[in-house]
Amino acid sequence: MGFAKHLGIRIRLLPGIRALRLLRSHHFGRSAEERESARLQRIRPDNLFQPSGFTVPNRYPHILREVKALVQDAPRPLRLLSFGCSTGEELLTLDSHFPGSLMTGIDISAPRLAIAAERLSSLRQQGRLQLFQGASADCLPPDLPPFDIVLAMSVFRHHDLEAAPARCSHRLRFADFEKTVTGLAGRVRPGGFLCMTNNHLDFTETAVAAKFEPCATTRHDPRNPLYGADDRLKPQPERDIVLFRRKEQTGPVSPGPAVADHRRDISSGGITSGPTGQT
């Protein structure tokens, strides 16, 4: 990150400046998305991770191509969960990559879900899409069958951490992340996949990671400083694990990093970033 950009982020994070900026954006933002992002940051609902709802269609094509190849022999229809589905572009993209699949979307923002519901009305009418407002997998019906693929793309992050402060707990707490990702992981069927990218929190330091094996990596993005279980900044890796397969065997979960076997680098320059501070 360049010095000028780093300094700019530091300045806008000063408490008084940040509060005034959010107040202005909440009431006078140029777009509904800017106003909603500011509202969420001001009220700070429980379990808020990424406040921005920025999204575009087909944002991670290299990752979805890899997942598609890995599930080509899985029984159809596939069951997919998009955690942090925002206004629905990711769900539309998933429908194009996995035609006929049964999809579920979760988002913390009611206004964004309303846009998604309208945009995806045909899928809902076909009975292939369910939308839930919530901040974790706890909002899902307990009897919902497990998923073949669970995605949390650019969710476990906060743009204020791009400046790489020594600790992340003023914006994200690893304990909240671990609880949330454990709930999502529990919704993945054995042999299914958990897909995460653009994270600021290290999944391999969670206890539930022992139930998964990494299977794909991408080059580490310096805008994504990584934090560990102690909420402290970690040495930055050369690559980020973006795709995990749930192990077929069952058993008790023990703390420790996931097994680092069967990784394939699928790095690509195809990730689309949002406006400054809205990756």
TrEMBL record:
Cleavable signal peptide: none
A GO term, aspect molecular function: polyprenyldihydroxybenzoate methyltransferase activity
UniProt xrefs under InterPro entries: Methyltransf_12, SAM-dependent_MTases_sf
Domain Methyltransferase type, residue spans: 81-172
Composition bias type Basic and acidic residues, residue spans: 219-249
Lineage top rank: taxon: Bacteria
Record protein name field: Methyltransferase type 12 domain-containing protein
Low complexity bias: start-end ranges: 267-279
Region (Disordered): 219-279
Transmembrane segments: none
Xref: Pfam families: Methyltransf_12
